[in-house]
Amino acid sequence: APAQVETVGHDDGLGVEVDEAVDPVVAGLVQERIGRYLWMLRRDNDEAISHVRNAVQLVPAEPPTEARAQVLATLGQQLMVSGASREAVAVCEEAIAVALAQWAMASRQP
After folding, report:
1. What share of the chain is helix, strand, coil (3-state, %, to 5)?
2. Cβ–Cβ under 8 Å, residues 75 and 49
3. Please, are residues 18 and 2 in contact by the beta-carbon 8 Å criterion?
4. How far is CA 39 from CA 5, 9, 78, 97, in A?
């Protein structure tokens, strides 16, 4: 069944339905965006990080994609601002590696 993603900051009954099994990348990007919005709205940072960690779990590691780099970069940012510096550095390094690998693959295509 599609996952119901609640809208942030509104009690209007609107939501986004994304079937994680059918499109895990879109589901992951929705989770990443919710986490970013929660942070921007200065909501509970643990909740924001939870959404972004879920995004990282949903977006496949292979092949390297812009979406994977994006969710990792957002997680790294969230960890940094929450004070988890060591984990943030490791996650950001992974985001950079994914972005570089994706760029290398894209530059080889005609």
Report:
1. 65, 5, 30
2. yes
3. yes
4. 17, 12, 8, 25
> pTM of this prediction?
0.82
Angle of the 66-81 helix axis to the 45-58 helix axis, nearest 10: 160
Helix (H) or strand (E) holding 17: strand 15-18
Task: List the structure tokens of 30.
Answer: 């929705």
Question: Which of 25, 47, 29 is CA-nearest to residue 38?
Answer: 47
Confidence of residue 92 (pLDDT cuts 50, 70, 90): very high
Q: What local confidence, expressed as pLDDT, does residue 1 receive?
A: 47
